[in-house]
Amino acid sequence: MTEERHDVQLTVNGHHRSVLVPARRTLSDFLRHDLGLTGTHVGCEHGVCGACTVLLDGEPVRSCLIFAVTITGHEVTTVEGLAPADGLSPVQQAFRECHALQCGFCTPGFLTTITAGLADNPAPTRADAVEMIAGNLCRCTGYQNIVDAVLRAAEISEQTSW
Amino acid sequence: MKPAPFVWHGPESVPQAVQVLAEFGGDGKVLAGGQSLVPVLAMRLAEPAHLIDINRIADLNFVTSSPDGVTVGALARHSRVEGDIAAGRVQPLLAQALKLVAHPTIRNRGTTVGSLAHADPAGEMTAVLALCGGSITAQSTRGKRTIPAASFFHGPLESDLAHDELAVEAFFPALPTGAGTAFVEIARRHGDYALCGVGAIAELDESGSVQALRCAYLSVTDTPLVLDLTRAWQSAEADAVEQAKLAIDPQSDLHATADYRRQLAGVLTVRAARQAISAAERGARAA
After folding, report:
1. What are the structural domains of chain A?
2. What's the complex ipTM?
3. Disulfide-capable partner of B192 in A117, B78, B93, B187 (CB 3.0 to 4.6 Å)?
4. Interface of A with B (CB under 8 A)
């Protein structure tokens, strides 16, 4: 039996994409396999680790827990869509400055989560920063540098918004 | 870790959805936020032949508040309910408990009604619905019916919904004037499933004494348990703790022993009750 395919149309990082995929294709696999956007990482594949976090209509969601067919017509931003054409986004810049990544596996999920978090709360306290990243697991860098990076990214954003 | 194949249905209205459910509900599951269902499918703990995806039914994405209570549509995400200021005023337990439902990223997608239909005894919203005496409205091609929380939860992950029924909305009655609420839990990590959680509603009389105290328990029973601790509390805090510990039936697992959960239930009963009483006192002063 061949599996029925559905026409999934998404705006990904500003580009319109249309692909025929089976209904069971998760958004994370859609991004990686069908669009070749391998910046979105797949860790636990059941919603625990946060590595696959992307922005759906601007809000962070687990892309491994959403079927692509469900969100046809919507807008997705992946880690590839965060950086301006030249250089790094404020959150990426802060990660580099604060040594907030080591192996980098969890980083795409942190970057998307923090980008949305700072849009909601541009001046977080250290406690806010801890809360902001509480749903993402990192197994090697350690969270202290990532929390530093949240606060540093808020500073950079504030400076560049002038 | 990939779901087994299924036939996807994307109804755009409730009548369409219940029509599909009437035909395929026997071997189908309703997909709303999917934050519990998709992991179940990914781990192949379930392999339904049909998935009825209600994400296109815009009519079900609502939260409405009235002096009587808060009505939450089947497609309202947890984050929307949590951020609804009017709903928080009418029934403060909603926002208090939603803050403890997983992480914000999960709440952006997961739905409140979906978590009720999932009927997980570790779910915060099941306890809230039971504690405030709310109800679920289910619709099918056979008609509509309203199911009180007390008869909605049958067992772990088992609800009163028939295969052809769609839970279209949940109703959370308003908190009575002069009452106070609290929702507390202990989890290994913030956002994880609670080892034990307790919600409380306290009502005071005119002299400021406790005239009603009800507590709801999660993760220590098969279905959300609501206890009337009024008389025990009026006698002594320790009596209320004793009543709670005797009423629950915690299980041991990887995360905690039954004894530890029982201990937590006692500690959290006092914590939740005191906070709810303080909230009622603040409300009384404000009024």
Report:
1. 5-81 (3.10.20.30), 90-160 (1.10.150.120)
2. 0.94
3. B187
4. 3-4, 6, 22-24, 26, 29, 45-47, 50, 53, 56, 59-62, 64-67, 69-71, 113, 131, 134-135
